[in-house]
């Protein structure tokens, strides 16, 4: 069973305070992952984490998004540097619980064409999985023809990974319990973007990659189902349930 799990930046960081980890949430998340691996609920797991107050804060300061790039070398070091710092925090929490987590830095691997299409090699991830590791990727910057560098969101990586690895389960853990309707109730299932377009917005925090609207749009393009759930749904998702919202 191959599982791709995105830990939203809004879960693992305090998204409104620059470069601030949510230590308790990170502990809870790492516990849930370690438990799922130790009881055999998950064998092949790829983790992707988002930017939260590390990536988005710096990306916004330098005016870099998934489409607007920069040639400023300081922007590269600030944004990519913050993401590798966050990645170290996530890895440390997993390693402390004996999860064989290893880093994959998208900046060193992927690139975009002038049209913005992402190319990302997955051979190293497949091989690491078959050798028993848990690759941990993150939203990052990538080289972008004609733009310098742009942001690659963790959500984009999840979609590419799920398709390339033929993932059995895809989950996005975010700060909200699922996609919410206009009365703030969790929508159980989404199969058409237009059915929910009116309630989908950007993130309430600083976010350069499009918030919930971009997530739903990207996940609808996947052949397999994906699930969007909150912190409390993580263990249930890893046990095989579908908490929150299923994107068909
Ligand atoms: N209909 C909706 N239902 C739920 N959340 C919504 C909706 N519309 C907008 N949002 C916003 O989208 C946010 C989730 O997107 P966001 O990109 O912040 O999540 P994330 O993936 O956890 O963070 P990051 O991008 O840092 O990884 C919610 O916290 C909320 O502010
Ligand atoms: C802002 C950066 C560098 C990463 C964005 O990744 P996301 O939080 O998954 O959208």
Automatic annotation (TrEMBL):
Protein name as it appears in the record: Isopentenyl phosphate kinase
Lineage: superkingdom: Archaea
Family label: Belongs to the isopentenyl phosphate kinase family.
Residues annotated as site: Transition state stabilizer: 15
Binding site for substrate: 51, 56, 154
GO cellular component: cytosol
Residues reported to bind ATP: 6-10, 52, 211, 215
Domain Aspartate/glutamate/uridylate kinase: 1-222
Pfam families recorded: AA_kinase (PF00696)
GO MF, any single term: ATP binding
Reactions catalysed, as given in the entry: isopentenyl phosphate + ATP = isopentenyl diphosphate + ADP
Assembly with partners or alone: Homodimer.
GO biological process: terpenoid biosynthetic process
Assigned EC number: 2.7.4.26
Keywords carried by this UniProt record: ATP-binding, Isoprene biosynthesis, Kinase, Nucleotide-binding, Transferase
Protein's job: Catalyzes the phosphorylation of isopentenyl phosphate (IP) to isopentenyl diphosphate (IPP). Functions in an alternate mevalonate (MVA) pathway leading to IPP, a key precursor for the biosynthesis of isoprenoid compounds such as archaeal membrane lipids.
Enzyme class: transferase
């Amino acid at each position: 069973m191959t599982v791709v799990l995105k830990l939203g930046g809004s879960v693992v960081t305090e998204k409104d305070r620059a470069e601030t980890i949510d230590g308790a949430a990170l502990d809870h998340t790492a516990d849930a992952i370690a438990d799922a691996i130790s009881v055999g609920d998950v064998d092949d797991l790829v983790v992707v984490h988002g930017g939260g107050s590390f990536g988005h804060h710096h990306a916004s300061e330098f005016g870099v998004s998934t489409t607007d790039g920069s040639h400023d070398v300081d922007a590269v070091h600030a944004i990519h540097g913050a993401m590798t710092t966050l990645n170290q925090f996530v890895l440390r929490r997993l390693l402390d619980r004996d999860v064989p987590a290893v880093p994959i830095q998208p900046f060193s691997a992927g690139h975009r064409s002038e049209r913005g299409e992402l190319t990302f090699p997955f051979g190293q991830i497949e091989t690491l999985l078959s050798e028993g590791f848990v690759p941990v990727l993150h939203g990052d910057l990538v080289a972008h023809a004609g733009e310098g560098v742009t942001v690659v969101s963790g959500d984009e990586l999840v979609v590419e990974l799920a398709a390339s690895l033929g993932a059995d389960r895809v989950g996005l853990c975010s700060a909200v319990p699922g996609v919410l309707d206009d009365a703030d109730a969790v929508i159980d299932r989404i199969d058409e973007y237009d059915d929910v377009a009116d309630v989908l917005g950007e993130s309430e925090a600083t976010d350069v990659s499009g918030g919930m609207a971009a997530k739903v749009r990207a996940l609808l393009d996947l052949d397999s189902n994906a699930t969007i759930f909150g912190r409390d749904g993580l263990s249930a998702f890893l046990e095989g349930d579908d908490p929150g919202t299923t994107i068909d």
